[in-house]
């Protein structure tokens, strides 16, 4: 398949590139220097040069706290950008695969069952609202679409790029004697290596629609960080705290665990448990972006 990846220098973009190339696809990789998804002229200039069967958009505005003070920018990139891409793909009969977030949920703080794709969303942050709007535009405009919700991504490219929770903990764990970590937000952090393997399967199915895609199991940021420190052999005192004690600018879901059984049924792909994936990530070498 001829595939264009947008956001190719990001942590998910880089792992998708490796996984899709290994599966024999021809790739065009577009970075932020090549395309700005909130600009229609930039989209046409960058995409008219290739004739892909599929466009994969990993570009997004991901600064969850900052989005509270600049929601217009978050909406331009996370909602209007996907709308423009959906219009372009529909016009040119191209399939579009786009990523969304567990942060489209959050209203039901005391929820226990994992969310299925047809459960009603309820974002509680500007970032979550902007991602949900992006989903709706794509689902309404582009007939051949996959929209994939995931959570807490970490990939090797995050080490030198925009960062991720694992790399932040590895750094802070060495810099500080003590860390306070939220222990009442439940979700499932996911490796971009595993997510890329799942996407490589999904695009062969032509089973378009909305999907949940995360590692198995669930955890809190406190337990996740403690496991990072245990596996990496870092000694640092960790203190469990509540969401209120942390005082972040944006509200985060207390529960945003996603049920991924639809993806598993359609692709036959089973994500590893989050602890297994974290261990694999910590043991694997850094990315060579020239490969
Ligand atoms: N990170 C996470 O924990 C989660 C992410 N997601 C979603 O998964 C997807 C991939 O995330 P991830 O790989 O972590 O993101 P990254 O921030 O690692 O990568 C995003 C890439 O997109 C580029 N980009 C940013 N804005 C634009 C723009 N306006 N036009 C074109 N390119 C742009 C960035 O370039 P530059 O840095 O140069 O601006 C960067 O290379 C996103 O849709 C995100 O919302 C969902 C759940 C969790
Ligand atoms: C650094 C740090 C964070 N935290 C908490 C804050 C927050 O609730 C949680 C995660 O913090 P982060 O800033 O890594 O991540 P955050 O921006 O909340 O993460 C999100 O990214 C976006 C893009 C998504 O779509 C989500 O799926 C999610 O992974 O950890 C602590 O409790 N202690 C700390 O020392």
From TrEMBL:
SUPFAM superfamilies in the cross-refs: NAD(P)-binding Rossmann-fold domains
Record's keyword annotation contains Cell membrane: no
Recorded metabolic or biological pathway in which this protein acts: Carbohydrate biosynthesis; dTDP-L-rhamnose biosynthesis
Keywords: NADP, Oxidoreductase
Reactions catalysed: dTDP-beta-L-rhamnose + NADP(+) = dTDP-4-dehydro-beta-L-rhamnose + NADPH + H(+)
This enzyme's EC code(s): 1.1.1.133
Domain RmlD-like substrate binding: 1-283
Highest taxon of the lineage: Bacteria
GO CC term (a single one): cytosol
Positions of transmembrane segments: none
One of the GO biological process terms: dTDP-rhamnose biosynthetic process
Family in the record: Belongs to the dTDP-4-dehydrorhamnose reductase family.
Record protein name field: dTDP-4-dehydrorhamnose reductase
């Amino acid at each position: 398949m001829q595939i264009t990846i947008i956001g190719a220098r990001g942590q998910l973009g880089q792992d998708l590139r490796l996984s899709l190339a290994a599966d024999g696809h021809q790739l065009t990789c577009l970075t932020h220097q090549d395309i700005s998804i909130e600009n229609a002229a930039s989209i046409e200039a960058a995409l008219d040069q290739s004739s892909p069967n599929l466009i994969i958009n990993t570009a997004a505005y991901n600064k969850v706290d900052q989005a509270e003070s600049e929601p217009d920018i978050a909406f331009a990139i996370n909602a209007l950008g996907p709308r423009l891409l959906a219009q372009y793909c529909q016009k040119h009969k191209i399939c579009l695969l786009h990523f969304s977030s567990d942060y489209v949920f959050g209203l039901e703080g005391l929820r226990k069952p994992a969310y299925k794709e047809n459960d009603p969303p309820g974002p509680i942050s500007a970032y979550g609202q902007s991602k949900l709007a992006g989903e709706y535009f794509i689902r309404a405009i582009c007939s051949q679409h996959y929209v994939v919700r995931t959570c807490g991504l970490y990939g090797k490219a995050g080490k030198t790029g925009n960062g991720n929770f694992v790399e932040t903990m590895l750094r802070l764990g060495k810099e500080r004697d003590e860390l306070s970590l939220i222990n009442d937000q439940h979700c499932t952090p996911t490796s971009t290596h595993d997510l890329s393997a799942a996407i490589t399967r999904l695009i062969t199915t032509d089973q378009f629609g909305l999907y949940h895609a995360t590692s198995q199991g669930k955890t809190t940021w406190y337990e996740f960080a403690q496991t990072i420190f245990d596996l990496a052999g870092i000694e640092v005192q960790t203190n469990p705290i509540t969401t209120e004690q942390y005082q972040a600018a944006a509200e985060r879901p207390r529960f945003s665990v996603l049920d991924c059984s639809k993806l598993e049924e359609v692709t036959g792909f089973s994500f590893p448990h989050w602890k297994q994936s974290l261990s694999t990530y910590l043991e694997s070498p850094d990315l060579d972006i020239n490969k």
